[in-house]
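Possible regression after last week's pipeline update?

I re-ran a chain I had predicted before the update to compare outputs. Posting the input and the new output here so someone can diff against the archived version. Not blocking, just want to make sure nothing changed silently.
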Amino acid sequence: MRNKILEYFKKSHEYVSGDELGQHLGISRQGLWKYIQDLKDLGYDFAAVPHLGYRLESCPDKLLDFEVGYRLNTKFIGKQIKYFNDLASTMDYAMQLGMENAAAGTLVLAESQTKGRGRLGRSWYSPKYKGLYLSLILRPDMPLAQAPILTLFSAVSVCEAVKAVTGVDSRIKWPNDILVRQKKLGGILTEVSAETDKINFVIIGLGLNVNNDKKDLISGATSIKNELKENINRVNLLQEILRRMEQNYLLLTHKGGPAITEKWREHNLTLGRRVKVYSQKEHYEGEAVNIDRDGSLLLRDDHGLVRKITAGDVVHCR
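New output (post-update):
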């Protein structure tokens, strides 16, 4: 009922009488008043004028499920949204949902995380109402060996959306860092549930600094607000990220990895540079010469040997 009331107000843009809306929705004026009070508690601002009724004046800067889903116009991503004001980790919650057979496209959103994390168990600072902290469940029909491409399509989608909505030109450091002027704007975390060589489901996590103030940024990080010196509508940005993710995911499933790696090259910062790659057991150094069709990095060492790197931390040497 809450969502129906909001949709009615968003379509009208004028004062709506309580009697008219109550009759339309089949609720009493007292019931409508209670719903509007609940919406006010969430941060919606209503004007109320005797004999005219109510008018929606403004919406809160919150990633509420209705706001994110309103006119999202995707086919499957974001059709189911789990929203939390506070959550330990969107990744952990999404993993639990995935094990419970949640549908592909189910989205977990949090305004803040107490145990947000990045790759290799690193923590992700998640100040409230500042950034985007989300995890998306996907169920791709692909072998486990192709999983690295999922990080790349996600990173490409974020860069495209950030550019389209804010004008900020962000770049990708393989495999998962989103950078602006060599400073970290965000990161992608991909976790896979698989049996033998078959993927059951994948969780794509995103942490993105949006309206973080300069004082709230850790060393080496930036935010969109820090770049533009103004606040960004987080709902609009998130909606565009979700649309781009769906478009690129469908592109990947229909045309394969090369369609994504071609896009990735347009946004990358890594190819053609001398890099060091640190994995859990070894590290390599050489020139990042190309990206494989599955998203792996091809590294040529000083002896001319080309290695295929599927995972690791990359440091740009120059």
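Follow-up from reviewer: compared with the archived run. The longest helix spans residues 234-255. Marking as no regression found.
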